[in-house]
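Posting this for the archive.
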Amino acid sequence: MAKKIVLLKLTGEILARNHQNLEADTVIAIADQIKKLADTHYFGIVIGGGNFFRGTKQGNALGITPSVGHQVGMLATMMNGLIVKDLFEQHELPSSLFCAVPSPEIGAPISQQGVKTALAKGHCLIFSGGTGNPFFSTDTTAVLRGLQIDAHEIWKGTLVNGIYDADPKKNAHAQRLPFVTYQKILNDQLGIMDATAIALAQQHNLPIRVFNIFENEALLKAAHNDSFSSIVHA
């Protein structure tokens, strides 16, 4: 049976859940789970940079030019990508790091041939530097890279256990949605991903699973139990 190709979108908080100190435990747990799924899944990863810098938050607070703030955010994702690759390889998970911002000392440029070669070697693919352009989120980057690697699904590992009809932090009556359409997310502005990412996934009918990456064995549960994730589909 052919392996399922998954693009895993990770929050930068996997390296700094307490927002104070960098920590490796969650990344190491993710590496162990990817190895356990190696017979049935290929993984590509896009990681955010919010643990270091967000252009729309710290950039605005500093008063720097918006495009420059986004560029700093892209560099933050490259820092995370380099950390994740090193931790993965220390734990015997072969990986290839790709950079949308040319940085040959850090990782390879993104090319279709490079991606195919890395997949053929069974490597975990790590994409950093966003799209290489300002004003695009890492959510949009995840869908874009998912399409480039012919992913069957996008998995968004985040801080919440799925998609809700309202912000569960603000509304105690918010209801978890096990299945939701792209159009409902756009119409109701549910905010689990930005509109550009959802519209691109909708255009290509690319399913999205959303789950809490910090739950024990989250990737294994996402792989074997549909009810663990909220699923976005047509």
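The helical segments are 25-36, 55-62, 66-90, 112-120, 138-148, 182-188, 195-203, 218-224. The mean pLDDT is 95.
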